[in-house]
Specification:
Largest sheet: 2 strands, antiparallel
Keywords: Disulfide bond, Secreted, Signal
Low-confidence stretches: 127-136
Number of helices: 5
Function: Seed storage protein.
Order of helices and strands: EEHHHEEHH
GO cellular component, one term: extracellular region
CATH architecture: Orthogonal Bundle
CATH superfamily: Plant lipid-transfer and hydrophobic proteins
Shape: globular
Organism: Oryza nivara (Indian wild rice)
Radius of gyration: 15 Å
Number of strands: 4
GO molecular function: IgE binding; serine-type endopeptidase inhibitor activity
Structural class: mainly alpha
Mean pLDDT: 82
Strand content: 5-15%
Length: about 140
């Protein structure tokens, strides 16, 4: 946050935290979609539509990738996977951590939902190691 002549200016995405820029439990239908994609299962059309609606409903497009990152951290906890695992570690049978991250990172492109930063609609930084404290 910068102060320019008495006016507070926020940088894009600065307000993207759980409960502020996106829900505390973000994207429940996208969790199901990412799990199915990761395990190579067929994607149910209703789940896809629901996920895409939830992702598009995040008003600030800068917050969509942080919401997906927060979603992943929550999924790892729910699945009992360590927060700091390696890409080849299994998150659940048939799904490796690296594949889960790629599935989540590609959801904006899969849903044709705008993200202002990323390559081809992919939240590319989700493939970097995340801090277990912040999820980023």
């Amino acid at each position: 946050m910068a102060d320019h002549h008495g006016q507070v200016v926020y940088t894009p995405g600065q307000l993207c935290t759980a409960g502020r820029g996106y829900p505390m439990y973000p994207l429940p239908r996208c969790r199901a979609l990412a799990k199915r994609q990761c395990a190579g299962g067929a994607v149910d059309e209703q789940v896809r539509q629901d996920c895409c609606r939830q992702l598009a409903a995040i008003d600030d497009s800068f917050c969509r990738c942080p919401a997906l990152s927060h979603m992943l951290v929550g999924m790892y906890k729910e699945l009992g996977a360590p927060a700091d695992g390696k890409p080849m570690d299994e998150v659940f049978p048939g799904c490796r951590r690296g594949d889960m991250k790629r599935a989540a990172a590609s959801l904006p492109a899969f849903c044709n939902v705008d993200i202002p930063i990323g390559i081809g609609g992919v939240c590319y930084w989700l493939s970097y190691p995340m801090s277990p404290m912040t999820g980023h």
